[in-house]
Each structure stands twice: as structure tokens, then as C-alpha cells.
Amino acid sequence: MLTVRMIPCLDVKDGRVVKGVRFQGLRDAGDPVECAVRYESQGADELVLLDVSATPEGRGNALETVRAVREQLGIPLTVGGGVRAARDAGALLDAGADKVAANTAAFERPALLTEIAERFGRQCAVLALDAARRGEGSTGGWEVVVRSGKERTGVCALEWAERAVRAGAGEILLTSWDRDGTGEGYDTELLRAVTERVSVPVIASGGASSAADCVAACEAGASAVLVASLFHDGVLTVDQLKSQLAESGVEVRP
């Protein structure tokens, strides 16, 4: 049985870790290097660093932050934000990233995933997919949300996930916009729907507030769980959460 990966997430803006609810009302949550070192020492399997203001501000990722984190980090690092071309992905990999996540630009031009996969390997190409439940009176399901949650596209999130994998995505970072920062638990219905339709690993993101939430995500098909507030606020440490998952029968790395 494959072990479930525990992945702390650092949303970064202006060189600081931030956290909000549904991508809004951001509050300061610390220094990215200090957070990265702390979470690795606690047993994190990987780390995700997302520059949440790069796309809205129309700029590339803050490479100096990536370099600073990599200098102190020994575990795999996925970086996203402001990736519009393969050269942007190359710059992030040169700065120390192991994988590169693309969201808005990949949605607008799926060939970006193909270019990253062909140039650097499919394992480097991560689709960051933000999905929101459709409103009342619609046909139901979830739609793709882009530009850091500011724009709903009307496009079916499940169909986009399938198309992105065909284009070259080797992994999907799946965030429930509705659950992000709420502590209401992962959207397991969304997770199950996506994992049943794609063959690549899916990382659950958005809403975790307990070990039970993480267990539910794993049962819904997630290969990894992304956690932010739970760690940033000191509710649990990475090793404590891993211990609770192991006690619940989930295979985790010691």
C-alpha cells in the first residue's frame, strides 16, 4: 500500500506566509523559511509554496523566496504562482523547486502543461485546480475558479482535470474553494469525483481541521493531504497529525 503524504502548504505574499478564507482576508502566518524548517523537522513529507499574489499582480514568482526556502529544506518542494511559460517553470526549478504547479495559465493554455512535461518530465508538471460548487439553479457539480479565486469560469472541474492530465499533468493539487480556510473538512465528494476520473495522484486541499478530515480525504481517494491553518495556528504538529492518522489505520511515513 502506498503511504499517504503529509504536505504543509505555505501561501506566500510579499515574502510572508499568509492564510485566509476562500482566498480572502489574508492574515500573516509567519516567515516562510522558518515555517519550512519547522515543518520538515516535524516530519513533513513534502512542502508546497504558492505565491498567491503573482497572478493577480501579473508578475512571476518571487524566486528569492524559493531560493531561501530551498537552502534550508531537504524534502521535495512544489512551487506555484505566476507560471505562464516553460521558462517560468525552468526558473523555479533552477531556484530549487522539484515540481511546478500551474493554475490560471494552464487553464487558459493547456499546452503549458505539455511543454513543462516534455521539457522537464511529467513528474514536474502539477495542475493546481481550484474548484467551486455551482450555485443553486445550475446543473450541479463544480466549476473551475481561476485568478486566485476571483473568477468563476463555468467550466466543469472534472472535465478540466481529465483534459489537463491528457495534456501532461502528472499530479493534481485539488483545492475546494468553498472549504478553503473554513475548517469544515475537505470536500470528499469532489475528491472522489476527481480521483475516479484521473489516473494521476490527487492532493486534497481546503478545509482540514482534524485528523478525521484527513482520514476522510484518504478514504475518498487522495494520495496526499495539504494542510495549512492546522499547522500555522499550532493546533497540531505534523508528527502529531501523522500519529493520529496511523492510529486510524492510514499508512503514513514515520
What is the total domain count? 1
Distance between the termini: 15 Å
Number of helices: 10
CATH class: Alpha Beta
SS strand fraction: 25-35%
Largest sheet: 8 strands, parallel, barrel
CATH superfamily: Aldolase class I
Structural class comes to: alpha/beta
Radius of gyration from the alpha-carbon trace, in angstroms: 16 Å
What topology, given as strand order, has the largest sheet? Answer: 1-4-5-6-7-10-11-12
Low-confidence stretches: none
Briefly characterize the structure:
By secondary structure, this protein is an alpha/beta fold.
Overview of this protein structure:
This protein is of the alpha/beta class and 254 residues long. The protein has one domain (5-247): Aldolase class I (TIM Barrel, Alpha-Beta Barrel), CATH 3.20.20. The chain is built from ten helices and twelve strands. It has helices at 32-41, 63-72, 86-95, 104-108, 111-120, 157-167, 188-195, 211-219, 229-232, 238-247, and strands spanning 5-13, 16-21, 24-30, 47-51, 77-80, 99-102, 125-133, 142-146, 151-156, 171-176, 202-205, 224-227. An eight-stranded parallel barrel has the order 1-4-5-6-7-10-11-12, surrounded by six helices. Strand 10, helix 7 (188-195) and strand 11 (202-205) form a beta-alpha-beta unit. Helix 1 (32-41) runs parallel beside helix 2 (63-72) and helix 8 (211-219) packs across helix 10. The longest helix is centred in the middle third of the chain and has 11 residues, at 157-167. The model has no long low-confidence stretch (mean pLDDT 91).
